[in-house]
Each structure stands twice: as C-alpha cells, then as structure tokens.
Amino acid sequence: MTSPQISLPQALRQLQATFDAMPPVAAMQVRVGDYREQRLAVDAPLAANVNDKGNAFGGSLCSVMTLAAWAWVTLQLRLAGHEADVYVADSQVRYLRPVYEDLHAEAGAGPGADWEGFLATFRQRGKARIAMVSRLLPGGQPAAAELDGRFVAMARR
Amino acid sequence: MTSPQISLPQALRQLQATFDAMPPVAAMQVRVGDYREQRLAVDAPLAANVNDKGNAFGGSLCSVMTLAAWAWVTLQLRLAGHEADVYVADSQVRYLRPVYEDLHAEAGAGPGADWEGFLATFRQRGKARIAMVSRLLPGGQPAAAELDGRFVAMARR
C-alpha cells in the first residue's frame, strides 16, 4: 500500500507510461502535461480525436477530462506514498461548444473536496472517494466543456 | 434538409461508415449493432478499450454509450428523411461496476422524451433537443454503466 517516495517528474512519467499502455488512450495520443497550482494538465491532438463534423469527438472530450481527473488522484496518492486503483464512479459533463483546437484539459479537486480527509480515510479504510472538477480549456479560452465527477481510490493489496 | 428515403440496413451502414471515418471511434473498433424495439445497439471489443486495471476504460464506456445515443438520433432523423448535425449537449454517467467483457451499449429515447414533438420542432425551427438513455449491458447482465444525456440536432444547410 505504501511505496517509496517519488519526485513529481518521476510521477508524471509514470502517468504517461500508464496512458501509453492503455490502447484507447494511446490511440487518442493523450499526453500528461504540467502540474501546477494544484491542477494537472492533459493534452491530446485534435487530429486523433476528430468527429464527423471536423471538431472534437464528444467521447474524446469526456475521456480527456476523465483522464485528467483520474491522473490527478493517482498522482496525489503516489506523491503521498500510496499505490491505488482509481476509478471514476460517476460524472456530469457539459459540452458547451464545439472544439476546433487541440484538446487541453485541466483537473483539480472539486470546490467542496477535502484532500486531507480523503487521504486520512484512504489510510484508515483502504478506500476513499473525492469530488473532482475537470475543464476543457482550448488555447486559454473559456471552458468548452466541464466535468464534475466522483473518483474512488482503492488500496492495492 | 430533406434527403431521399433510405432503408434501415442502408442507414445502419451509413452510421458504420461515419464511425469508421472518426479516428478515435475507429481506434475503439466500434460497430453499429441491431436496431430493434426502438433501441440501437453499439459494440466494441474489450481489447481495444482496456485500462491499466484490465477492465474497460471509463472514457471508452462514456464514448460507446454517447455514440449509441448519438447514432440513435441520427438514425431516426435519417429514416424520417432529414440530415442533421447531432451533438451531445450534456450527460450524466454512472459507472456501476468494472467491465471485463466486450462492450455492448443500447440506447433509446429517455422516459420523458417526445420523439414526435422533437421531430415537429426540428422541422419547424431546424433545431431540436431530446433526452436519451444509454446503458452498458455486457453479456445480457444488469447495466454496468448508465448514461442520461441531452442531444441537439441542427439541420444541415
């Protein structure tokens, strides 16, 4: 359940390796981006995620936002010394406008989320749940899509 | 806005061609299935949609359920003689349990949806919105995931 301490760059490389090992994620050419100000970025080229209308496929928008939030939880747990299976439990997605640019998502804990409480519960029970928010922010413009979701982490035994 | 009448098999082949032309959908190897009892099925092999835990990637579940509902709306419009750009506007997804089987989704109009009203609005305004339900039903078992979503159709001009 507890792993040796790793650095942020190492943890980001681990996430990229996990993405690359998942066939649908590799096909979407998803890249782990920067982690700063408690938010993790994830990117993917439009060309690998385009729909019949020449803009981004809704399923790819959902996937990239889900992955950003999933990776945030996995990253935070690893930096705290834990290996866990992280699942999305539910999500609400609003597709606000078509995306004609490369996909750039940023995820962080939801407004009411309590990371310390999540971590304490995870350590005590081997399982915890956290509310996450993920946004599709193409080219620094206002969000083109938003995801609110709950993610569950289960300690690997 | 109005196209010549086409048969159900022709319309299903058109949907498959659209899926195959979308890179992320082709990568997930999504196949249009049967249309019966007002529900359209969509399938995809687990191998092309697997995650780091050996079960189906949440983004693929979201994508396949979204595609089934999107295809249902597109199909119904085509059978009624209309070509439209169909978008998902929002969706709520519940991931109920991990999926270790090939992906099989079935979509239909939501419980409160009024197809005739949708069609009348579309014909009058060139734009209409409908509530859809999509379920992930692996191997005829109870749903492993559920999507409630609203879809918007805009007439092609």
Report what the structure shows.
2 copies of one chain form a homodimer. Chain A is α+β, with helices and mostly antiparallel strands and 157 residues long. Chain A has a single domain, classed as Hotdog Thioesterase (Thiol Ester Dehydrase, Chain A). Chain A is built from 4 helices and 6 strands; from the N terminus they run ααββαββαββ. A 6-stranded antiparallel β-sheet of chain A has the order 1-2-4-5-6-3. In chain A, strand 5 and strand 6 form a beta hairpin. In chain A, helix 1 packs across helix 3. The longest helix of chain A is centred in the middle third of the chain and has 22 residues. The radius of gyration of chain A is 15 Å and the shape is globular. At the A-B interface, helix 2, helix 3 and strand 3 of A face helix 2, helix 3 and strand 3 of B. Strand 3 of chain A pairs antiparallel with strand 3 of chain B.
Question: What attributes does this structure have?
Answer:
homodimer; 33% helix; globular; six-stranded antiparallel sheet; Thiol Ester Dehydrase, Chain A; alpha+beta; 4 helices; 157 residues
